[in-house]
Amino acid sequence: MQVLSEDGERVFCRRWLNGTGGDGNCVLAVLPAAEHPTPGSLNRLTHEYGLKDDLDRAWAVRPLELVRERGRTMLLLEDPGGEPLDRILGEPMELGRFLHLAIGIAAALRNVHQHGLVHKEIKPANILVNGASGEVRLTGFGIASRLPRERQLPEPPEVIAGTLAYMAPEQTGRMNRSIDSRGDLYSLGVTLYQMLTGSLPFMASTPMEWVHCHIARMPVPPGERMKDVPGPVSAIIMKLLAKTAEERYQTAAGVESDLRRCLAEWETRRSIDEFPLGQHDTPDRLLIPETLYGRADEIDTLLASFERVVASGTPELVLVSGYSGIGKSSVVSELHQVLVPPRGLFASGKFDQYKRNIPYATLAQAFQQLVRQILGKSDVEMGQWRSALLDALGPNGQLMVNLIPELALVIGEQPPVPELPQQEWQNRFQLVFRRFLGVFARPEHPLALFLDDLQWLDSATLELIEHLVLHPDVRHLLLVGAYRDNEVSPSHPLARMLARIRGAGGMVREILLSALKPDDVERLLADALHTDRERVRPLAGLVFEKTDGNPFFTIQFLLALKEEALLGFDPGTLAWTWDVPRIRAKGFTDNVADLMAAKLSRLPAPAQKALGQLACLGNVAETATLTVVHGESEESMHAALWDAVRAGLVIRSDRTYAFMHDRIQEAAYALIDEGERAMEHLRIGRLLAAKTTPEDLEENVFEIVNQFDRGAALIVTQEEREQVAELNLMAGRRAKAATAYASALQYFLAGRSLLAES
Q: Of 343, 558, 573, 755, which is least packed with CB atoms within 10 Å of its CB?
């Protein structure tokens, strides 16, 4: 075997099949670099092999088979000849050769995107160049996606799939933007920059430094680094390297067209005149811009709060309010960018209207994210976190393990919590939680904690939030809450808590989000449809009239127009077209709930069934739990939800599925007939109870009881009533131990009612 390239993650080789060392048939082979590869690196090989029918040998290196030899897994691919581009890089490339190769790479990428794939790891090592024929093929499809759009969570950069030096800003999870085909165009820009100048646009020594470069630093234009680079070529590369996808080229075809124009001029005159870029760059797919229109002041207020927390250490509470779909979470997600320079941490949890009895569930969800990040770190770093946590928690570690069971994987099994008089329980819990929080909220990494849908918060969390905001020991914390202001009256517990915090001198800032103005809707449509505002004005007026400027409704309404073929792309004129009278005649609903119900009803029956099951479990559910509830294999569950993921209705991550928005969860729950919902919850409760081992029961009791109690009226046998009453007793005791007394009382009463007749 001849090693062609190695990047620490995988080894790319040429292999002679008959052992003649160069005279026989060749294949290419990819194998993990590590002797004991991680499941992730093996999954990449399996994933690339699974795409073989989507890849064409004209523009991609096609997988042949997945084999196992001498205990090692490797992927064999066709060998079309040539070598990886990274082997011929080093010195700046002669312009004519550069343009020929750049056109070949852009054309190959155009084909990838036309086949519905996003590559996600365009870099020289994944570009095979045949010097003799000039042909270019792409390889390295191990993390390629069939989704037109997907979200990257803001995970530690060490664990994000891809190569940091070539990674698009949105792929870092720090840009409040989805990943789509335009992320590949950024990586193409980095590659072309390196080919032309002999060096990368940025240099960095740590993963977080790479992230900062991509999201915040502007590269020196190639034309300034090298005086003989023509202005248009430099401008093409800089357009590819724009920080936001909306400002880049929109299609690989648009890049290819401009590069061909440059080559034609260079070959005829040895010079290239300036010309307007992107004249052949209108995408035929509807991609709604993720720019936040009309929100600049609100975002500035939020970011200023975080800057003050970084500068002074004094905690602040910022509340973002507005109607459902108004864009509260989107505004809060703008924090991700400013968290990078101070190495800030971000954690988020979402309250669920059907899980109000589960004490601290939302805080547990948020801190579980941080604990999982620790579990992904090196042994040395994990050891530092372990020491800090053990030091902070002392003999009371089990209190936090009860809240976040995975914490035991970091700090080890903990002894039982020391006995105390019951009146001291709450003080101890608050002290321990405060110290636990203090491990994450520090000067060297301040913490932004986002709690969504506060209108549904439980009383235990409410008291804890009040304690944290007012206690002098809590530092370096920005606590952000979002709630629907139309569901919080002056007598709501949240409103009363805010009054108490203000009365005690706590720092509370409020950001009220209102509907988009007609002008904002007009700009959104003009950007989405790549046209001028005057042309789009009549359509924008109709959209505003239907949606009242609610951003979620506006976007869903546009997507519905596309689905109903009332908005279409004309390949002849390369422009989007629509007919306002036809849209009016269609009689679309003015109600977003009806619009979402209609959208879900168009999905295949298996997808509707799986969405209903997910809605019963909450706004987010673990894949393993969803598989149990689905009642078939994990593969069939993923297959059932694929159409919903592809439509952007639910977001799939490594181990969870989550609804993209509350409105979608509500519509999915409505797919189950009202008269059948209690039976569905009872069925789920029975399945979860049957699949949970006795030793795991206490850890999962809240989720199980939550399902049983919503179907309790249908339990008929005395044996099952007693079983569910016992589970309520266990849940009540667990809530009481966590000083969530109101929740404990609810569980005790629910259990008592099941025994009322005996």
A: 573
